[in-house]
TrEMBL record:
Protein name: Na+/H+ antiporter subunit E
Key word Transmembrane helix present: yes
Entry keyword set: Cell membrane, Membrane, Transmembrane, Transmembrane helix
Pfam families recorded: MNHE
NCBIfam families, A to Z: PRK08965.1-2, PRK08965.1-4
Length: 163
């Protein structure tokens, strides 16, 4: 019964918390309005999400989160070196068409978000058949290095988590 009213309890809890944080109040009116929105928004958007994600390996998900955080910090320094470095280093950006093994839609979405969130890389396009991902890299010295790194650091764990 509760799953019919609150299909994604964590999403609802997150929405309520964000509502209260953005309004900077714990007044009863805002708690009630936030609760109403936290219940209504997932119900209204449920038809837009036909496949429910299941995390098969939560431990791997936590490890991946740590990897992404550390890579993001490191990439900030790498991007600063490229931007502040010589002009020849700034002209080293390019596109990679990365072949994909991952097929789960939630995993693919997460991979695209990770690549876009890490400074120096941006996910540009996913092939219609989901066989490759077009990525822009700010400092592209070795295409195969990037493909191998993305596959081992992000795609492999996402396959463990979602497939």
């Amino acid at each position: 019964m509760i799953r019919r009213i609150v299909p994604w309890p964590l999403t609802s809890l997150f929405l309520l918390a964000m509502w209260l944080l953005l309004n900077q109040t714990l007044s009863l009116g805002h708690i009630l309005l936030g609760t109403l929105l936290a219940i209504a928004v997932p119900l209204w958007t449920a038809p837009l999400r036909p496949v429910r994600a299941t995390l098969r390996r939560p431990g791997v998900a936590l490890k991946l989160l740590g990897v992404v955080i550390l890579d993001s910090i490191k990439s900030n320094f790498d991007v600063a070196r490229v931007i502040l470095g010589s002009k020849s280093r700034r002209d080293n950006s390019g596109f990679i068409r990365m072949p994909l093994v991952l097929r789960d839609p939630h995993g693919l979405t997460t991979l695209a978000l990770i690549l876009t969130a890490i400074p120096g890389t941006v996910c540009i396009e996913l092939a219609d058949d989901k066989s490759w991902l077009l990525i822009h890299v700010l400092d592209l010295n070795d295409e195969q290095y990037w493909i191998d790194t993305i596959h081992s650091r992000y795609e492999q764990p996402l396959m463990e988590i979602f497939e």
